[in-house]
Amino acid sequence: MNDLFRIHPEDTVAVALRPLPAGETAQGNGFSVRAEESILQGHKIALCRMEKGGEVIKYGWPIGRAKETIAPGHWVHTHNMESQLEGLEDYRYEPRWKDLKQEEPAFFSGYRRPDGKTGVRNELWIVPMVGCVNGLARQLERRAAARLPEGVDGVVAFQHSCGCSQLGDDLACTQKFLRGLLLHPNAGGVLALCLGCENNRPEDMQALLGGYDRERIAFLVCQDCEDELEEGLRILDRLGQYAASFRREPCPVSSLTVGLKCGGSDGLSGITANPLAGSFSDWLLARGGSAVLTEVPEMFGAERLLMNRCRTEQTFASTVKLINGFRSYFLRYGQPIDENPSPGNREGGITTLAEKSLGCVQKSGTAPVEDVLLYGEQVRTHGLSLLQGPGNDLTAACALASAGAQILLFTTGRGTPLGCPVPTLKLSSNSPLASRKKNWIDFDAGRLLTGASREALTQELAQLVLAVASGTRRAKAEALDRSELTIFRDGVTL
Question: How far apart are CA 401 and CA 483, in angstroms?
Fold first, then answer.
């Protein structure tokens, strides 16, 4: 096994695959370098002399510049390297994409809904339309859980703090987000729980839903009934019977949408877990499925890779608007656009946002970008879509669920127990994490560093996703609390 990994032939740094003591000559894939100081696993070592102000190259792209002259064999991190990201940028459409080879269909066992969507779970969801009814939702969840009919996987009461004291676009974003949950196919029945005096009025939500299935979605306005718990249980009993009428049946993976997310990344994430998620994304899309990539701030510095993969110039223009729109959001609040990575990311070896982004976007694989979605919008087309959303783990995961993802792939190098409305599979970037946190991690992508082939692990991951979609396996996060919703906000609170 090598000690170092150089991702691209033009890279001026390599990643330590294990801790390197000072004075040791470390071997890489076709090169060697003497470690002039101790290098932690996942951190970068200089392969050549880099002058002060010169670019540091990783993934074949600049990830920052040297704050001082860096000699070969030295540790490259925050003490001697800085970000180059700033302000808005101009971009030119330079398409460099090719279609994936279409593969034979694959199938899983799912729930076909009357609207043409496919669910991987058959749950009852209680979705508050305003945070004031969170407590009532939890009471209804406890009571309904004891009387669920056979064939219903469970009942989940979500909670959030929005729906009132919001105005304009901020309220509209909340409404679009909640609309996505109400329509989500993983729920066989949904109770939209309202208070009655909130800004997010029931009639506005019903209008936003359009001609919705009233057998599957029911509204309860708590201020309008004498005993909201009894009335809520009566509605949930009816919805439970409706949900129980669905049975699993063979469904093509072309009906599957997988959300792509990373959190608590380390210096190995861009070598193992993220590329593996990208390989799975290509596997899925080659069979007609869909994938959604979000975390727009974690595209900064790598956005040109995505822009060059846009199928049309219109999609390219939407991607430019997506990137510069989020940069403007940072600048509007007087914040630097490179206020990232997190402390945990830095401890794991990631120094700049561009470095983090170049690792993050690998989750999208190699397929063309077909569409760009605004926050709260649902997937409109097969293939790869980009979704407006922040990097915050729970906010981004919830946004992917609202967009229609039935399953999430969540890569991590540091570990997280995070759950969200849909099954969320955790892929570890390193094997020690997978061994230490068996109750969090579903798949060990760190095996790529010890001889496992990407092709073999892609097939293994695909089989795991299909098993989770079919209900024969459960994501570890499904056993944890997944009731909390975080809704993106950018507006006045009354």
Answer: 13
